[in-house]
Design brief:
seven-stranded mixed β-sheet; about 40% helix; alpha/beta
């Protein structure tokens, strides 16, 4: 039996390595899909007004984008967000994550502001509730406040066309039939 132990260990290791090769490392399952967006009190980026997240999401299909001025990938993604804001009828909510207002304002003044509203999440409280561990992260929230989609990493035209836009169109149809 001792002769076969190295072979058994080799086969087990080979199986785990082989199993991992086919996985998409960018696609991470989220325990929040199908659950309510966290309802916490947040602060408006521009006005410093306090409100709850649910008051912003109520009755709207919303693209929620977690970003920061220090995030290189957020800069690369930003033009895509500008294009989405110009060409599509989805509410866009930005979450300025673990940043300063000064740096965030500089970022938006330089690159443009695609968001309808921005939450200032300087200490990362909302980010923690959302399970954010890397920026950018994007969520699609339906008109009932339920998270339907999560993307970790940069939004691309391909992801927008093949995954997000069809989902938004489906959610709009569902919202109309549930009236």
């Amino acid at each position: 039996m001792g002769k076969f132990l190295p072979l058994v260990i080799f086969i087990a290791l080979a199986w785990f390595l082989f199993d991992g090769l086919g996985r998409d490392t960018k696609k991470l399952p989220s325990p929040l899909i199908g659950k309510s967006f966290p309802n916490i009190e947040v602060e408006d980026f521009s006005t410093k007004e306090k409100y709850t997240t649910h008051s912003l999401l109520k009755d709207n299909i919303t693209l929620v984008n977690v970003w920061a001025s220090w995030c290189v990938t957020c800069r690369a993604e930003h033009q895509m967000l500008i294009n989405i804001s110009k060409n599509n009828s989805v509410q866009m909510l930005g979450v300025n994550y673990k940043d300063t207002r000064k740096e965030g304002e500089f970022f938006l003044n330089r690159l443009g502001n695609p968001y309808d509203k921005i939450i200032f999440d300087q200490i990362g409280k909302l980010g923690l509730e959302l399970g954010v561990y890397a920026t950018p992260e994007t969520f699609i929230v339906d008109s009932q406040g339920i998270i339907q989609f999560k993307r970790v990493g940069q939004l691309t035209p391909e992801i927008w066309k093949t995954q997000i836009l069809p989902l938004i169109q489906q959610l709009k149809i569902s919202a109309k039939t549930n009236i």
